[in-house]
Design brief:
With about 210 residues, this protein is an alpha+beta fold. Helices cover about 25% and strands about 30% of the residues. The chain has one domain: Ribonuclease Z/Hydroxyacylglutathione hydrolase-like (Metallo-beta-lactamase, Chain A), CATH 3.60.15.10. The strands form three sheets. Strands 6-7-8-9-12-13 form a six-stranded mixed beta sheet. Keywords: Hydrolase, Metal-binding, Zinc.
Length: about 210
């Protein structure tokens, strides 16, 4: 069964998650935006073996530590969708603009597309392309664990920003309603910032995409 531990990183308190298979103890780290020494130590304390980096999108607080972590541990970089290439190319400028430690750009080992899967140990997660916050944003969904790692698409009581370059509000709303809601009301999602919630809770009460809208 899939297990996870969420560790806020960077000054933006971005929810980086270490996910692992409890049979093999192989693990992936989702969105290592920074503080990679903390992430490596957390993996050690959990007793897991980091095998891959999975990215939802390439904003600095989600991807800023990717190049350094991949180089240090020789990890493959999986994702995001190719639509975020320009954000990856801009990581050094993003780090300067937002006062982050220097961030290198990188070439993903594998780009992701809607309908792909990723695997860690015996656990397989489905990939959904959910553009709007960024054009290449993806979400990782484990139907068995009823968990989804949604980056900055959806938050408890809110939705992702669309005022960055190539953001698109209509696309974001469509991604949430057409690709997240079908994962089921009982699915708990881990957002890029803030507390967890469920799709059912947000479908009913979120002021931006709830049923009253």
């Amino acid at each position: 069964m899939l297990q996870y531990r969420t560790i806020p990183v960077t000054a933006f308190a971005q929810n980086c998650s270490i996910v692992w298979c409890d049979e093999t103890m192989d693990a992936a780290v989702i969105d290592p935006g920074g503080d990679i020494d903390r992430l490596i130590e957390a993996a050690r304390l959990l007793g897991v073996i980091l095998k891959a980096i999975w990215l939802t999108h390439a904003h600095i607080d989600h991807a800023g530590g990717t190049a350094a972590l991949a180089e240090r541990l020789a990890l493959p970089i999986i994702g995001p969708h190719p639509g975020d290439q320009f954000w990856i190319d801009a990581l050094p400028q993003q780090s300067q603009m937002f006062g982050f430690p220097p961030a290198g750009h990188f070439t993903p080992t594998r780009w992701l597309a809607d309908g792909d899967t990723v695997q860690i140990g015996h656990c397989t997660l489905n990939v959904r392309h959910c553009p709007g916050h960024t054009p290449g944003h993806v979400v990782f969904h484990s139907p068995q664990a009823q968990r989804a790692f949604v980056g900055d698409v959806l938050f408890a009581g809110s939705i992702g920003r669309t005022d960055f370059p190539q953001g698109n509000h209509a696309q974001l709303i469509a991604s949430i309603r057409e690709r997240l809601w079908p994962m089921g009301d009982e699915t708990v999602f881990i957002p890029g910032h803030g507390p967890e919630s469920s799709f059912g809770e947000e479908r009913r009460f979120n002021p931006f995409v709830g049923e009253g809208r």
